[in-house]
Every structure is written in structure tokens, then in C-alpha cells.
Amino acid sequence: MRIDIITVLPELLRSPFEASILKRAIDKGLVEVHLHNLRDYSTNKHKNVDDYQFGGGAGMVMMIEPIDACITKLKSEREYDEVIYMTPDGETLNQGMANQMSMLKNIIILCGHYKGVDQRVRDHFITKEISIGDFVLSGGELAAAVVADSIIRLIPGVLSNETSALTDSFQDNLLSPPIYTRPAEYKGWKVPDVLLSGNFSKIDQWREDKALEHTKNRRPDLLE
């Protein structure tokens, strides 16, 4: 998979891809992540990529020309399955969406900034709009990193134990059950006996029951 991220703050995005699972995925050649500084595509001598909005109002708007130039250049080099725009009014990211996108080959992620982008960008270039929640960030970079992480970890070979992702919360519309590790008893707090029993059918049933109970208590909407 190749992920191209268009941003005005590439330095804000480098760190997540230089550590942990994401770095290992890149080092293994399982994914490529390329950061593109939108200012490199500005025709303004000051490298501006924003301007005042027509009709007046507070906040600057990202201009269409540099975005068009960047996306057009990328598309001239390869085909893309999705051109994604990170925006608070997009479709909320969920596990099902991450599962689907992890099977794509090439995607572009455009990070919004300021008041947003010229609407014509959304009308003519964007194929998918994603939000990570009902709140506003100062830019789309952190949201883009969240989306990339949610996708990359699902690519076969990225996780040491590939079955681990299959038992994550939301994979089957349930939250994960409680989990424990050694020691079996700490300050009088004991691990449930069933997890120490070695009876894997009972353990699986316990986990299923606890996942359902946890979901009913925390996220009953997932069961609707």
C-alpha cells in the first residue's frame, strides 16, 4: 500500500511514521508513506496556500490551485483508489471503514487547515471525506495519522500476531472483554479462575459473555 499525505505541516506528521509498528511496516516494505508539502505547489512568491473567503467572514481558506497541482501530479504517476479529505463534517471513522481501506493499493489524504478548503476541491477531487470525531482540530495532520495507523496495522504482516487485530474492539460490533497478565494475584486482586483453567472452550465463552456485557454497559448503540 502507498499513502500520500498532502499537508502544510509535514514536520508534524513525521514522528508517527518513525517509530513503533508504523516504522516496522515501512521498513518491511509493506507500506509506503509519503508526505507532500503543499507550499511546494504554491505559485505565490511567499508560498501562501490560503486566502480570504469570498463573501467575507472570519478565517482563511485553503486555495484550490496548489491542491489541484499536487493531486494532479500524483495522479499522473499512478492510479489512486481514494482521495480522502480529513474534515470534521466527514463520515466518522470506524473499524469497518478501516478494514475496507486496508485492502486498497494507493490513497491520498488531504489535511485540512485554517477554515477548510475551497469547496471546489471537495466537489471535483475528493472521493471520500473522513472525520475522527465531533470536534475540531487545528489541522488535519493528527487525524490523518490516526487514519493511517488504523489502516496500516491491518495490513497482513504488520502485526507480529495477525490474529490479534481480529479480536480488537469493534471488529464484531462488540467491545473487547477484560484482559489480564501475570501475576495471577496482586495485592489480593485475582485473575478470574476460568482464565487459568486451561479449558479453552470455557475461556472463549467467558470472553464472549464479558464482551457482550461490556458492550451493553459502555456502548449499547453497537448492539442495535
Automatic annotation (TrEMBL):
Highest taxon, organism lineage: Bacteria
Name of encoding gene: trmD
Organism: Flavobacterium beibuense F44-8
Name of the protein: tRNA (guanine-N(1)-)-methyltransferase
Presence of keyword Transferase: yes
Enzyme Commission designation: 2.1.1.228
Assigned protein family: Belongs to the RNA methyltransferase TrmD family.
GO molecular function: tRNA (guanine(37)-N1)-methyltransferase activity
Lineage start: Bacteria, Pseudomonadati, Bacteroidota, Flavobacteriia, Flavobacteriales
Segments forming domain tRNA methyltransferase TRMD/TRM10-type: 1-224
